Amino acid sequence: MVKANAQGGPALVWLRDDLRLADQPALAAAVASGAPILCLYVFDEESPGLRPLGGASRWWLHHSLTALGEALAAIGGRLDILQGRAGDVVPAVARAAGASCAFWTRRYEAATIEIDTAVKAALVADGLRVESFNGQLLFEPWTLRTKMGDYYRVFTPFWRSCLALPDPGQPTPAPRKLTGAEWPAKAPKRAALKSLGLLPTKPDWAGGLRGAWTPGEAGAKARLAAFLDDGIASYASHRDRPDIPATSRLSPHLRFGEISARQAFAAARHAVDAGKAPAKDVEKFVAELGWREFSYHLLFHNPDLAHKNFQARFDAFPWRQPSSAELKAWKTGRTGFPIVDAGMRELWHTGTMHNRVRMIAASFLVKDFMADWRIGEDWFWDTLCDADPASNAASWQWVAGSGADAAPYFRVFNPILQGLKFDPLGAYVRTWVPELAALPDEWIHKPWEAPPLVLKAANVALPRDYPLPVVDHAMARDRALAAFTSLKAATA
Q1: Active site residue: 291, 379, 398, 432, which one?
Q2: Is 432 among the catalytic positions?
Q3: Averaged pLDDT, groups of 10, the chain, 492 residues long
Q4: CA torsion sign, 221 to 222 to 224 to 229?
Q5: Out of 396, 398, 432, 443, which one is annotated catalytic?
Q6: All domains in the chain, ordered by first residue
Q7: Is there a catalytic annotation at residue 381?
Q8: Would you say 352 and 385 are in contact if contact means Cβ atoms under 8 Å apart?
Q9: Which residue among 60, 373, 398, 443 is the active-site one?
């Protein structure tokens, strides 16, 4: 480590949801400054308005910070972790170090924007050069406007507008070497990663997460490479099939910035140019990156997206409070609808769920139980490794019918038909609901309708081995549609 030179103090890089070295403009700017570098991560659960991370995200963060620290050490740097209000901690470190400049990746939630604005003002007042960069999105939310000058509320014209903009460009490589600065003696005390308490202990429920994921930039690169080699060629036709490994599984890596959207975008487009992937599959994948962009566009313009109905008329919707038994059945995968239960068990075990099944499980909660979408959004926030502040909220509101570009409330997913269509051989259900594994394909999505001899041959006794449906879907659908009709009448 090197002390600040006489011509100027060290460069400060404040890392947040951008835990990588490649395509990292804030780090690149610090390297270009020629100054020794301090790389900070501030674990902030104290600043007003910040939403605490859920359990699965905390697990991921621990391992992502571990990986980043090792990667920085390998090129001469160091990751310094602190705990407390970022608005106090970052300026204090900069002053103690006599920093000359500070760099970070922009954030888009209202509370984080407020924090970043205050920190920038404090650092500029202290004489530092401060720059922020777009390292998280393909396009900044404020750069997309309708012809009327408003923000977009419908995805298709939004994405068309995005694709009409100049290409996001090529990702930049990671620095091969950097010069780390000594930790200033009078700076706030650094925190050991373990002291943050991010990992579960009693009980340790993260075994499935450890088996399913490799957090960190190297894991993200490997995941993208594997997808481009094996999955993307059938993406357009198989992305809705939870029984086929055709999705990228990049979402948690994107959530923590271990890989940038620009890296994924450029790599996918390159696969077409190199003749390694069909254009239709790549464009469908790129459009899913577009949905992430759209979600951040909505969040930037609607800071309360996770808590407030995007469509105000839904404030009058007659949500019902599900019973504790109903809610427990949904959370634990014991609703009696196998495709729903498979998804909820996959979520609990691995910290993720196939996107099609997310829609089915969310529709079940919101339409069959007629529960407020915020109950589901909060559960996913706690249990998803990729619990993204924009995508999680926007997607739940989409299913509920209360959001932008929403599926109409009267679109109610039938869990039986959805299972038969997207898991036709029952492979997904058999993986996560093994008590039904011996049932024939035609009955695995509706075991309560199977003839007694079929159940007996499969060694399945209902409800001993698997619950009967907790709700009559046809009745629940009618109830939901009646509630929506009453809302329309009341808000006409």
Answers
A1: 291
A2: no
A3: 59 98 98 98 97 98 98 98 98 98 98 98 98 97 94 96 93 97 96 97 92 98 95 92 96 98 96 92 96 98 97 94 97 98 98 97 97 98 97 96 83 96 98 98 98 98 98 96 88 72
A4: positive
A5: 396
A6: 1-136 (3.40.50.620), 137-171+217-301 (1.25.40.80), 312-491 (1.10.579.10)
A7: no
A8: yes
A9: 373
